[in-house]
Amino acid sequence: RERAISAVVIAVVVGAFFFLGQPWLTFGLAALSLLAAVEVFRLLPAAGFPVQPLPGVLGPPILVLAMGLDLVDASWVAIYAAAVLVVLAVDAFRRPEVRDGFLAWVGGSFGATYPAMLAFVAGILAVAPDVPADAPFADLPLSASQVWLLVLVLTVWSFDTFAYLSGRTFKKGRFLNHISPNKTWSGVIGGTVAAIVVGGALSAAAGQWLPGGLFMGLLVAIAGQAGDVAESMLKRTAGAKDSSNLIPGHGGILARTDSFLFAAPVVYAYLLIVSA
C-alpha cells in the first residue's frame, strides 16, 4: 500500500512538471540531481571514501540548469569534469593522510560527476529536433522537447517493466548476481527486446528513421541496465539497502533515476546525430 501510494504521488509530481514544460522541466531535473547528489555523498563515506559533500553536491544541479536552459552544450561537460578534478584535488592535497586525501579526491570526483549525468536529460530538452508535420506525434499537444523526453522515459520504462516480467516468468540464467542477486539473463533479454521495439516505434512516430530508432533502443537497454547495476554496486559497497528513505516503499531518488543516468547520454547523442 505504501509503495502504491508513493507511486501515485511520484506520477502526479512528474506529470505536473512534464506538462508545465520548459523551464519547469529543467528546474525539476535540477532538484532531482541535487537530491541524487546528496544520496551519493551519503553512501560514499560508508563505502570507504572520506569525502566532503561540498562542493560536490552543488555541481550537478548547476550543470543541469546550464544544459537544460541551453546556456551551454555537451562540450562543457568535459570542462565541468576537469574543474571537479582540479578543485577536489586541491582539497585533497590539504589532508594530512595521503591515502585519505587520494580516496577523498577519487570519491568526491565520482560523487560530483555521477549524478551530474542527469544533465543529459536536460540537454535532450535543448537539442530535441522538431517533429515533422506528417509524423504521428505531430498531433500531440506537446513540444518537441516533451516528445523526446517521453521517448526516453518510455523506452527506459519498457526495459525495466519487461525485464521484471520476463525475469519473474522464466527465471533463467543468473546475471551479475554478485552485485544484484535478483537479475537474470531472461530478464535482460526480455527488457532489451521491449526497449528495441518501443524505442524504434516511438522514434518513428516522432518522425525519425525506424532502423536508427531500433538501434537507439538497443543502446538505451544496455546503458539503462548498466546504470541500474552501477547503483546497486554503490549501495552494496556502502552496505546500504537503499540510497535513502526519501520515497516510502521505493527507497531514494537514485533508485528511480539510475537507469536514466546512463541512458540519457545515448538519446542525447542520437538526437545530435539526427539533427546534424
Oligomer: single chain
Task: Kindly name the structural category.
Answer: mainly alpha
What does the overall shape look like?
globular
The averaged pLDDT comes out at: 91
Strand content: under 5%
Percent range of helical residues: over 70%
Largest sheet: none
Q: Output the helix-strand order.
A: HHHHHHHHHH
Unreliable parts? none
Q: What value does the Rg take, in angstroms? A: 19 Å
Layout of helices and strands:
Layout: H1 2-20, H2 24-46, H3 59-68, H4 75-93, H5 98-113, H6 119-127, H7 144-170, H8 185-205, H9 210-238, H10 253-275
Helix pairs in contact: 2-3, 2-5, 2-6, 2-9, 3-6, 4-5, 6-7, 6-10, 7-8, 7-9, 8-9, 9-10
Give a structural overview.
- This protein has 276 residues and is an all-alpha fold.
- It contains ten helices and no strands.
- It has helices at 2-20, 24-46, 59-68, 75-93, 98-113, 119-127, 144-170, 185-205, 210-238, 253-275.
- The termini are far apart.
- The model has no long low-confidence stretch (mean pLDDT 91).
Write a short abstract of this structure.
The protein contains ten helices and no strands. It has 276 residues and is mostly helical.
Descriptive keywords:
mainly alpha; 276 residues; single chain; 10 helices
